[in-house]
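Hi R.,

As promised on Friday, here is the backbone we talked about, encoded as structure tokens. Could you run it through your design pipeline when you get a chance and send me back a sequence?
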């Protein structure tokens, strides 16, 4: 999941924090680790809820609502923990920390785990890989964007346009990993 089926560059999930937080290396790495943690815990919680609660009662149609509630709760707990333990990190992440709640990459890995019929442990490994890939891409993109700030970029391409071009080239490079499998 980290390289071959990267959540951001191959599945196009989680683009909002990808473009929003990837301007600064420290914020990007912190956000990546927070998303990795939420993906891992969310997968560990949503898998048993789906298989032990929703399936036996024929309520699989409730998975979206239940998964969103679980993820929102987890993010709130993590946000409160970060606020109490590291106020600097909390302030650096700003609005992006609550946005993990609506990060489609977090919800996406929960759905992928169910759709691929992964076991509990396979779900955790998939979430770990997806979170690691998300973090890797954020760190790579933030490093590139920090260097682009110092580059002599034409005015028309400064900011978001060059970020999109860079993301496209980064995505193409990650697609090369598919040929290796």
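Update: got your reply. Pasting your designed sequence below so it's all in one thread:
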């Amino acid at each position: 999941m980290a390289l071959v089926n990267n959540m951001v560059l191959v599945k196009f999930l989680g683009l909002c924090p990808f473009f929003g937080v990837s301007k600064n290396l420290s914020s990007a790495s912190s956000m990546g680790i927070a998303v990795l943690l939420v993906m891992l815990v969310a997968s560990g919680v949503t898998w048993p809820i789906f298989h032990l609660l929703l399936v036996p009662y024929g309520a699989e149609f409730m998975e979206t609502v239940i998964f969103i509630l679980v993820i929102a709760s987890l993010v709130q707990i993590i946000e409160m923990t970060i606020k109490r333990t590291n106020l600097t990190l909390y302030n650096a992440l700003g609005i992006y920390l609550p946005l993990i709640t609506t990060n489609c990459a977090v919800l996406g890995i929960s759905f992928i785990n169910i759709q691929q019929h992964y076991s509990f442990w396979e779900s955790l490994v998939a979430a770990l890989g997806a979170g690691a890939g998300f973090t890797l891409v954020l760190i790579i993109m933030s490093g590139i964007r920090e260097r682009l700030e110092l580059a002599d970029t034409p005015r028309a391409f400064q900011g978001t346009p060059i970020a999109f071009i860079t993301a496209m080239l980064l995505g193409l490079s990650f697609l090369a990993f598919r040929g290796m499998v």
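One thing I noticed while checking it: The chain is about 75% helix and 0% strand.

Thanks again,
M.
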